Amino acid sequence: MRFALTLTALTLLATPAFAIDLDQDGHHAPPQGQDCDDADATVYPGAYEACDNRDNNCNGQIDEYCGYPDTDGDGVPDVNEDLNQNGNLQDDDTDADGIPNYLDTDDDGDGVPTANELGDANGDGIPDYLDPNQGGNPNDRDTDGDGISDDNERIIGTDPYNADTDGDGIGDQQELGNGGNPQDTDNDGIIDALDPDDDGDGIPTLDEGTGDADNDGIPDYLDPDIAPIDADGDGFTADQDCDDANALVFPGALEECDGIDNDCDGDIDEDCDTGDTDTDPITTPTNGDTGDTGGDDDDKGGCRGTGATFAIMLLPLGFFRRRRN
Length: 325
Fold this sequence. Notes:
Blueprint: H1 2-14, H2 78-81, H3 150-156, H4 172-176, H5 205-208, H6 307-324
């Protein structure tokens, strides 16, 4: 009995009480795991097999894919782009963008080139270039849930805490496009994900939206050839009108005393009266009441006020005073 207990104790002492992962790559060394080199974080089961005379993916073979064609030059041989291993490279399209992986330099469509994502940062067994939301590694969390990791957003220049960085109604993921090079539709040096007017036609992307007014297959926000919009029907298109949702606001409109820029000149209520310097109850700032040192005509333009109405109300009183005299 004592001999049996001693053997049991020795066995427990010889067996680690916890799984070992010295290189912190998410894969444990034997016997708990199958990491064939637990001192190298780039070597683990399912890792990308680089041409470096090592068994990176722990499958017992070294550089097994080296020398194979790599049509898109992304560092992943075509044979590895055939994910379903049916011999047809055309039907493997991870991000469903219409470009098969073997021709796509950003296989998962996360805005980061495949060539820069050949590892498995979160150790989930899915190579980063096929994993648009890695999630497991704190450095790869996707705070705003737009399918682009926070780290990648910082590299690109978008806001990791806002799924629509430029606030134009089109999400960052959609505006980043495919191929690892965020698109710049109007070639103004500002990528679409940061550009409030993606196509540079003078109409904000937010106003154009994803419709296709001319039915040419190009969304309005990416189509500079679409006719300008006059949403409020006041005769001025959105690129001319400072408020294309209000038919009473347009260039040259009468400036009302209402706290908005009615005539689109950049000033608000600029013709409105500040006083009645001649004490005749007509408070009109610049054009008319000649007795005012600074007043606007109550009946010849400018900002419409209440002074003229008040004066009319006083006229009967003056009339009765004259009759009594």
